[in-house]
Amino acid sequence: MTLLDRFRTQPRHKHPDAAVRLAYVAELPLEERDLIMAVAREDESARVRRAAVAKLMDLSALAAVARDDADENVRAQAVAMLRDIALDAFEGVSDAESLAAVDTLGDTKALAHIAKISLREEIAERALARVTDVHALGSIARHAALEGIRRAAFDGLHDHGEIVSVAMNSEFKDTAVAAVEQLVDREELEQVAARGNNKIAAKRARGVLREMDERAAQQAAAARPPAREPAAIAGGEPVQVVTPPEAPARVEEFHVVEAAVKEAEAARRRDEQQAAERARVVVAEKQAREKAREKAREKAREEARREAEKETERRRIRLGELAGDAETAAGDADLASAHRRMAVARCEWKDLGVGAAIDPEVASRFAGAETRLAARDTEMHEADARARRDALNRLHQLLGRVEPLLTNTDLSLKAAERALRDVRAALSDAAPLPSKRDYEETAARLKAAQAALTPKVQELREVAGWQRWANIGIQEQLCEKMEALGASDNPEDIARQIRELQQQWRLAADVPRAQGEALWGRFKAAHDEAWARCETHFAAQAQARAENLAKKTALSGRAEALADSTNWIPTADEIKRLQAEWKTIGPVTRGQEKAVWERFRAACDRFFTRRYEDLAKRKTMWAENLVKKEALCARAEALGESIDWEATSAEIKRLQSEWKTIGPVKKSRSEAIWQRFRGACDHFFTRYAQRHDIARAERVATREAVCAALEALAPAASPVEPPVASLAEPPVASLAEPRSDELAQAPPAAGPVEPRADLLQNVRALRARWQQELALRGVDREHALALDQRFAAAFSRVVASWPAVFGGSDLDPDSNRKRMETLVRRMEDLVTSLAGAPADAALSPTTRLAAMLKEALAANTIGGKVDQESRWRAAQEDVRQAQASWSRIGPVAEEARRALTDRFEHACRRIAEGAGAAVRSAGPADPPWAGRGPRGGPTKVRPTGS
After folding, report:
1. I want to staple 196 with a disulfide (CB 3.0 to 4.6 A). Which of 70, 101, 202, 890 is the partner?
2. What are the CA-CA distances from residue 446 to residues 2, 396, 411, 438 (Å)?
3. pLDDT (tens digit, 9 = 90+) per residue, 452-496?
4. In this structure, how many other beta carbons lie within 10 angstroms of the beta carbon of residue 792?
5. Model confidence pLDDT, tens digit, residues 678-697
6. What does the alpha-carbon distance between residue 408 and residue 831 come to, in Å, rounded to a whole number?
7. Which pTM value belongs to this model?
8. Count of CB atoms within 10 A of residue 706's CB?
9. In 10 A of CB 67, how many CB atoms?
10. Please, are residues 482 and 527 in contact by the beta-carbon 8 Å criterion?
């Protein structure tokens, strides 16, 4: 086999593995008739030929295979293919091909099968014409699908047994009845009548039996002697004949006739008894035969059932064995052998599995074995493809290494010979490659490289030969130089020159063997003589190097002792001192330099690595602590402007306590972060110390904002008084509700000014806000009075500018004044009535009557004497109600308000004093709260500001 043949891929239909050829045949299309025909005729494996025959559609080839193939199964497959073509089981088969297939067939069973099931009369007739076997004709007569074919086959039957079988087993009326008509044996007819498959044939058999019985009866009657004279004989009784006296001669003749009749009757009775006996015997024999046949059938069914059970059990056992064989085959190390064994098991599995229920577990085992084998097959193909790719990569790498050498001007002989050797090895023993193209390209490149390298190697070998002769002169010069070293006195210079000469000798070492040995002996003798003079110097040098080694070893031990220290700064200084001392020590013994240096460096590195790790941890801790402290600073700064003094003070103290629990930060950041936190805390506590002044300034600023908002509602033409100076150093906050820029805009300076649509609501909101601020204490009296005057002036300007807007509302001064006057008069009248003075003549009778009723109800003395204590209690209740109404009255002009307030307070005070006197006069049993205010003091009316 040539190298090219190694890379050629064999066709799959010629592969040595039958399983591969079988798979190839399964993949072949039906159009590849020539290839299928060649495989069906020539393949050495019967299974492969059978698979090819199953795809073969050529009649002559099929006939040849059916006739000449050595394997019975292959011949049977060819016959089956011819039969299927004749039955038109494939698409595209013409009538001529079907008829030709029938003519080609020589198998009687196949021809009988075609005649029985074909629905094309021409095909069935052609097949029937070629059938000569009696049993096949009987089967066609019994089972053929076409009536004409059945009758033709029956007409060709001359075997009595097959005719009886047609009568018994045919399911078709025509042939079954025709067969019954040809039967003459009574027993056969009785069998057909009793067990015939066709009901009409059985009925006809029963009719034939009746006809036979009737003929037998007729023949028996015809065999009897005729009677000379009819006689009435009933029940065998003798007939009494009266002989007339005038006929005595005929009596004897009558007796003779009578005796003959009796004898004939007895004979008839004997015949009937014998016929009945024969019938009973026949029926008994028939019943016995039927019972025997039934027992035989039952026995046959039982045997068939047992055989079926045995067959089922055998199949089950065999299927389990096949599953085990498949699993063993799947685990076979030889993949080709595994495929062959699996194919054998698969074929038998298919044959046994037809029409049988397979255990799911066994089926799963078999399927799993097939899956594992398929996986191994896939893995093998992948491994083969991978090996081919690897081989191609190796050749490409070789070419990538060799091809640049072809253009290298400095190519050495050693490299050239190695490259040429590798190229020749690759060409002589090449592994399979992925494709033919890869092989051709790679082989061409390898051959080109070989052709280019061969002359180069030859040339380099010639150059190397000349170089060896030139090296002889170089070595002679080196020997002379080595011998001249004997005149030198400097050991260091001698050693240095010896090393240089040794290096030069190695470069010129390639010389012919004969001259090379002599020159090497001369060079070595001169070297030994010169080197002996340096030994003393080198011994002293070795002693010094040993001492240096001891010193450095001691330094390494000290460094190792300090490597695990945690006293970072002093230890670092000490190790740095050791490193400086190390540099002052000279070289050590040869071969020990690296070991002692690595030991010393490892100890130093271990310490400084630990130091850096510790520093990194501390930096991480410092960063975490810095983040925590910055968060505390941000929190303290956020609380610096809080006015929730007590809660904020507690929170900042908590932050200070938390600050103490946090560890240190980086030294360069420590002071700055501390000053930031301390400044935030000091800022709050400074404000905390001034909290009362701040609160007072905020309240003053709030009242100033209300006044400013009310002044903004007044007309711009009216003079506005300058605002009172605020105690707050910076303005604290504007009014939250309502804001002056939202409530009103300054009206134009000239011309009539129309009031805003929401003027009343804005003024009412500002006044409610003012009342809320008045309820809050903390403003010094001077600023409070100034702000009260400012608010009253602004309010008066607004009301005076647009009296129509406020008329009739709770902010109308006239209406409020009238309400005050009403309450004042009411209190004064109450004082007068309590003091016993006559009622005001101006009061109407109805009013006086109402007052009297009220007093009576209060004292619960209607129609009786008034209780003075109850009257004073009712008067106190009236005072409280009047004070509540007084507090809800809106603004009034200042002068009128003061005058009315004085009168109202005076009346209330008199009632309170009178109630107190009444309680004191009533004694200790009176209620202690009589005549007292809500806090236990005398009732006092709070003046209402504008």
Report:
1. 202
2. 16, 10, 18, 12
3. 888 888 888 887 777 777 888 888 888 888 888 777 777 777 888
4. 19
5. 998 998 888 888 777 777 77
6. 139
7. 0.31
8. 23
9. 12
10. yes
